[in-house]
Amino acid sequence: MKKKPIAHLRKWLCLSALFLLTVNIRAQQYPFQNPKLSSEERAKDLILRLTLEEKATLMCDQSDAVPRLDIKKFNWWSEALHGYANNGNVTVFPEPIGMAASFNDELLYDIYNAVSDEARAKYHEWINMGNENKRFLSLSVWTPNVNIFRDPRWGRGQETYGEDPYLTSRMGVAVVKGLQGPADAKYRKLLACAKHYAVHSGPEWSRHELNLNDVDPRELYETYLPAFKALVQEGDVRQVMCAYQRLDDEPCCGSTRLLQRILREEWGYKYLVVSDCGAVTDFFTSHKVSSDAVHAASKAVLSGTDVECVWNNYPYKTLPKAVEKGLIKEEDIDKSLMRVLIGRFDLGDFDDDSMVPWAQIPPSILNNEKHRQLALDMARQSLTLLQNNNHILPLSKKENKIAVIGPNAGNEPMLWGNYNGTPVRTISILNGIKTKLADNTFFYDKGCDLVEDKVTQSYIGQCAFEGKPGFKATYWNNSEREGAVAATTQITNPIKLTTAGQHEFASGVKLEGFSALYETEFVAKKTEDLVFKGGASGAFELLVNGDTIRKYNNWRLLSSKMSIKVEAGKKYKIEIRYAQMNDWQANIELNFGKEVDVDYTSLIKKLKGIDVVVFAGGLSGELEGEEMPVSYPGFKGGDRTNIELPSVQRNCLKALKEAGKKVIFVNCSGSAIALTPETETCDAILQAWYAGESGGQAIADVLFGDYNPSGKLPISFYKNSEKLGDFEDYSMKGRTYRYTTDVLFPFGFGLSYTNFEIGAASLSKSSINTCESTQITLTVKNSGSMDGTEIVQVYVRKVNDIDGPLKTLKGFKRVEVKAGSSAKAVIDLASDSFEFYDWEQRKMAVTPGEYEVFYGNSSDAKNLKMVKITIN
Fold first, then answer.
1. Count: domains in the chain
2. What is the DSSP string of 751-786?
3. Which residues, listed in sequence order, are joined to residue 552 by a DSSP beta bridge?
4. For residue 44, is it within any domain?
5. Coiled-coil ranges per the record (predicted)?
């Protein structure tokens, strides 16, 4: 064997040594990779190893991977408002406004414990398939919404827990604890988020420019801040989201008063703050408080906003430039990044899944029987009976015949509300009622639309393309409608497609990152006005003969009406250009045809021989929601311009009443409806909210007496729109039960099928010091013939408090009582139950004096009794 030259051997030995050294370095564990260290220690070590550019990207909600340090991609934006949102095969619970009507924070905890189980199972199922973390499929969930529902016109009020600070606080804390898991666990189950901080409740159309400079300190601390404080101090919430608008000239995401003095100094919050999506960009595009992205980014970070969310073009990626300009120091960035990284370490994001117990939750947990039962239980408890003339309810299952009418009777997506996932199955109101009746005793007709006083006769059957009827659908597995075609199909009915439940638009078409072109031609037989009705989630453009009729890009399904005049004999080329965008679930719907007037005469004829009508109407998520680019009569951008029931439904109810029918109105809405006329035209009114996947079953159970309703209103139902005031005025004067009694149905109100009597109460102490607590004890008697649940409510008012609330909720308890029996209720009143804003100290305080303690089953004075307590 030929010997190697000495020089060559030395080179070989050096290379070998270098290789072994490299392997050893790679095998060596950095301190930030050591799960035995605390999250704080790990975050501190990692920050030392990052470049300034890497730090900036880790503060974006879509955080890029850092391959050299084995840091994977992470997304901060997922939703879990009432189920793991924007995902299929999950459990969809009632909207929060409905769950608030249960006054059951214990059940709410169980629900969000289930939600976090499903989120973990969905996330790890996705990751274990070799996918990356993405928007809406992550372990950070921007829930709950604890804003005060101060004005019933706000389209997002359905996401909240109502108009009362105490109820919102109790429900919000239960949500956070259910989502984040046990406080003593090594890893957080999820990271919850208190939003939108602060003083935010519409209108949607001006939230990016709105400046609130008339909110006095008392209203700020007594109304708008208590829930956030409770979630921080009691719930240990790990994220707070700052809102879009300005408060006293400062954007909320750039407010040192909100983010530093109140949140961190007064309340002791130590975790991270995230921006609402696009809020930092608003600094220079809408609020005009910053000149450009660089100045906006530095202002936001210095104020205390740690994670920025935006659709694209992150101002936070300009932070290195801000450092160069001297606008911010790298140590300021490190301060924010520390909180960001601690959040990820607390989730176990940097550790192997085998070490994280939550990562072992199997996909079989998704929509299992236990979770379905929770959805049904909460739907039942949310239902609120507002009127029951002559005890028409519960209905008999032996009625000769019952008609089910109304636009929401068969509408399954309506039950999901907004910010929702897609359930495995949904029980509509129609199908729920069907389970109670024989086929020959049941009649159904939609009756009318939600808003439109016309119905559409579809002309799609008169359309054709390339010699085939209907629309030609062409699909590409990219978002640009370029390259090889993935599939072509023909659609001969109104278009209605979704990827919910992992459904493809067509065989061979991906669930994400695809685009479509729908083409057809229509030859008008006569000159007339026609309409397109529909919309999409994603990039949507409707063209007629090359002219754009409607174009937008949105993350939720938005339906609207688009009118067109056609001339006899003329051909019209109709195109729909569509693309699934970002991580949004793909949906598209479209019908085309002629509108004709609703004919109530025809409907009444169909009801001959039927005495009892269940009318399922109200609103839906297509009408009220977040910053919607389409509007309807009475609606603007997702908000409402009035709170009356849409006239088409009001007229239908009137026609039914005039025909001599007994009308049970099931009102589905996420907000209060002015039901003054409906109290005359309807024999019974059941407020059903958006009741989730089992809503139809729950509604049927209540209508037919298989469940005794116990829900109580978490918001006031006003008589009409006349006294609502300026939507953009955040003063509480004349708003909510705490500052007005001029309502139709008061906060805390709800009927039962039985009768409850609340006895005289006693206080464990009728004179206490400022730091002491007391208990109120009372007896609830069920004097009726049906088992039921009463919700006892306790309110407090400080005597001689001139500008304070009329009363404010400070305690509640659900009391189950069997027919003919009594039960005792004991409700704790902690010292802070008597805390109000003290103008002399300029802060919240318990001050000496006399206080009135009201107790009963609604906020209405006639439903309350009173005892007094003295604080020394």
1. 4
2. B-SS-EEE---EES-SEE-TT--EEEEEEEEE-SSS
3. 540
4. yes
5. none
Q: What is the pLDDT of residue 637?
A: 87
Q: Do 303 and 164 fall into the same domain?
A: yes
Domain for residue 723, yes or no? no
Distance from C-alpha of 95 to C-alpha of 382, rounded to nearest angstrom: 10
Lowest mean pLDDT, pick from 442-446, 737-741, 808-812: 442-446
In a 3-state reduction of DSSP, which class is residue 337? helix
Q: Which of 204, 306, 377, 624 is catalytic?
A: 624
Digit-coded pLDDT (tens) for 531-555: 998 889 899 999 999 999 999 888 7
Indicate if 656 and 781 belong to the same structural domain.
no
- 625 with 762, same domain: the answer is no
User: Which contacts of 738-743 are long-range, i.e. CB under 8 A and separated by 24 or more positions?
Assistant: 738/163, 738/164, 738/223, 738/805, 738/806, 738/807, 738/808, 739/805, 739/806, 740/716, 740/806, 741/806, 741/860, 741/861, 742/718, 743/716, 743/717, 743/718, 743/719
Does a structural domain hold residue 863?
A: yes
Peptide bond into 203 cis (omega under 30): yes
138: Cβ–Cβ under 8 A, 6 or more apart, which residues?
74, 75, 76, 77, 78, 123
Asked if 737 contacts 743 with a C-beta cutoff of 8 angstroms, the reply is: yes
Residue 328's CB is within 10 A of a number of other CB atoms, namely: 22
Mark whether 436 and 565 lie in a shared domain. Answer: no
Strand partners, 751: 385
Closest-CA residue to 712 (of 856, 866, 865): 856
DSSP 376-388: HHHHHHH-EEEEE
Tell me the mean pLDDT in the region 631-647: 91
Three-class SS state of 743: coil
**Which DSSP helix (H) or strand (E) runs through 636?**
strand 635-636
- Contact between 445 and 606 under an 8 Å Cβ cutoff? The reply is yes
Is 624 one of the annotated active-site residues of the chain? Answer: yes
pLDDT for residue 491 is more than 90: yes
Catalytic residue among 79, 159, 276, 835: 276
Look at residues 642, 670, 703 and tell me which one is the last residue of a structural domain: 703
- Which residue segment(s) compose the domain that 240 sits in? 26-64+71-350+358-365
